[in-house]
């Protein structure tokens, strides 16, 4: 059978806190961490296409990432440079300058690249895993404090990279990519399922999800995290 493969280069934008077998040891780039985050985004994607039906969503999700009854048809491999990714220790509470921090998190340093490979003999499963990975990079994060801006990743090469010179261009590029991701013709024709009631879990649907693009430019990732967490208290509440 023909093996389908998707390969893309990712770059760390903010410190990435990924623990290994030893929580107090060095951070590790581990495939299970990616699988877990990609499951969340695939569920959010399927919920916006299929509707608020956990049974159907789990059926499609398990065909991509497996279940207790059968293994995943997708192999996920991570490949960094031969010397590996550099790491350092960081203050996880940048938005509280007057707060005495008695602990620091070990994380991979920003602006480092690594490759992620998705392989499988089921083309549809590979494509859905790819879409989940795109959403993880475009809208989410990975590891500890990912809901506070840490663990942000970006796709740096190819047509999936979000390249823009202005906030409007970024918003347009993001909108185009999200619309493309939500087209899953193998499951459902490209039409939004009406969802009159509040969904039971986070989903990517025009009626129940908002994606905001900040118009301000920042000199560093530290400044960006500090600004968002200090100036946007209403955002902090939604991230709890």
Please characterize this protein's 3D structure:
Helices cover 34% and strands 14% of the residues. It has 240 residues and is an alpha+beta fold. It starts with a strand and ends with a helix. It has one domain (4-238): Alpha-Beta Plaits.
Which keywords apply here?
single chain; 240 residues; Alpha-Beta Plaits; 6 helices; 34% helix
Reconstruct the topology from this structure:
Elements: E1 4-12, H1 31-50, H2 54-65, E2 75-79, E3 87-90, E4 105-108, E5 113-120, H3 123-139, E6 153-155, H4 167-181, H5 221-231, H6 233-238
Antiparallel strand pairs: 1-5, 1-6, 2-5, 3-4
Helix pairs in contact: 1-2, 1-3
Describe the structure concisely for a colleague:
The chain is α+β, with helices and mostly antiparallel strands and about 240 residues long.
Question: What is the CA-CA span between the terminal residues?
Answer: 45 Å
The CATH architecture can be named as 2-Layer Sandwich
The protein's oligomeric status is single chain
Q: Helix coverage percent of residues?
A: 25-40%
Are there runs of 5+ residues with pLDDT below 50, and where? 236-240
- Tally of structural domains: 1
What string gives the helices and strands in order? EHHEEEEHEHHH
